[in-house]
Amino acid sequence: MTKSRLQATRSSHSFFSMSVKISQINNDQTNELRNIIEVTFLETFAHLNTAEDIEIYSAKAFTTEQIVKEFHNENSFFFFVYFEEAIAGYLKLNIGDAQTESKLENALEIERIYVLARYQGKRLGKALFEFSKQFASEKNAQWLWLGVWNQNEKAIEFYKRQGLSEFSTHDFMLGNDPQTDILMRLKL
């Protein structure tokens, strides 16, 4: 299914309320995507890391070229979540060789699930997670998995409440700081 066809399918799912909509991002929205990727990352992690490490990471991860490269990977899928018609967050899902780890076969990775700070507490993270489970089922994945920074206790607790359990770890470089991500999974 092409990305444009998939977008039409995604925006009509019935389990989203009138005020919440999730739709696949199109080529014309890559600048908005780049902006929300940077803003949500900084809102989430800047206060927990050194300014130097954040600057080094940002210089690589948030360039237009990097975002466009990720967007055009045929095994990666980006979605915006809208709250009352405003972009409130985004989601990046990976299948196949786009996944950041190959420890699970027949799996779908939630690489990124972010909601802008001003929209947190509106159950948008839960909506994005449920959407991810449905998307994984449509892709016939047997596992849904993700990596979460071991210092992000709020996110770890959220994922545990969704039924994910820890199965491994991997290293993640934030600037010059080696960090550890906990890998969590859910059998579908």
Which terms would index this structure?
188 residues, disordered N terminus, alpha+beta, globular, Aminopeptidase, 31% strand
Description:
- The protein has about 190 residues and is α+β, with helices and mostly antiparallel strands.
- The chain has one domain (about 5-145): Gcn5-related N-acetyltransferase (GNAT) (Aminopeptidase), CATH 3.40.630.30.
- The protein has 6 helices and 7 strands; from the N terminus they run αβαααβββαβαββ.
- The chain has helices at about 5-10, 30-45, 50-60, 65-70, 125-140, 155-160, and strands at about 20-25, 75-85, 85-95, 105-115, 145-150, 165-175, 175-185.
- Strands 1-2-3-4-5-7-6 form a 7-stranded mixed sheet, with helices on both faces.
- It is globular and about 40 Å long.
- It starts with a helix and ends with a strand.
- About 25% of the residues are buried.
- The model is unreliable at about 1-15 (pLDDT under 50).
Largest sheet: 7 strands, mixed
Report the radius of gyration as a whole number of Å: 16 Å
Total number of strands: 7
Q: What spatial form do the alpha-carbon principal axes imply?
A: globular
Give the strand order, joined by hyphens, for the main sheet.
1-2-3-4-5-7-6
Provide a count of the helices.
Answer: 6
Distance linking N and C termini: 22 Å
Architecture, according to CATH? Answer: 3-Layer(aba) Sandwich
Broad structural category: alpha+beta
The percentage helix is 25-40%
CATH topology-level fold name: Aminopeptidase
As residue ranges, the low-confidence spans are 1-15
CATH H-level homologous superfamily name: Gcn5-related N-acetyltransferase (GNAT)
The total domain count is: 1
The ordered H/E elements are: HEHHHEEEHEHEE
Oligomer: single chain
